[in-house]
Amino acid sequence: MQLLRRRTTVPTEEKLAYQEQKAPTVLEWLLKQPGSLFRYPLELAVCLLSISLSLYHFYVAFAGALEAHSFRSTHLSFILVLCFLLRPLGRKGWKEPKNWWFGVDLLLIGLVIAIQVYVIWDIEKFILRQGDLNFWDYWSGTLFIFLLLEATRRSVGWAMVIISGFFLLH
After folding, report:
1. Are 88 and 102 a contacting pair, CB within 8 Å?
2. CA angle at residue 95 from 93 to 96, to 5 degrees?
3. Is the pTM of this model over 0.85?
């Protein structure tokens, strides 16, 4: 019993203070910057998208669930856009200066938005075509899976992409 007591340590104030220090959120960082909020359009877009996603979920919780396909695809599209903005390609984080890889991020965001518009445009026909998909349904679905795998690679890493790819092919 004495051996167990020696190994269990109570965290000191320094350890607790260190654990409480986190990297600031995008909104905290943006509000601490001097000058206008419009000097940082990317950060402002991330904040507005995050707030919009929260409001979207509050609306769905209050007004009742939307049709499942439209709700899920809209949620996933919001998350993919935020992932591509917060985990940029070719940079360590969103605070670093933008490079030419930012154009690839914008292209991926544009593809996510285009696929979302395609799905939502006529959701009833999209749902009724299940089992009899057309050319654009196949391509948009395949592209959406690749976009999801890229977001997974950026946020979680290659291990989850390999596992997901294995089960997709299996």
Report:
1. yes
2. 75
3. no
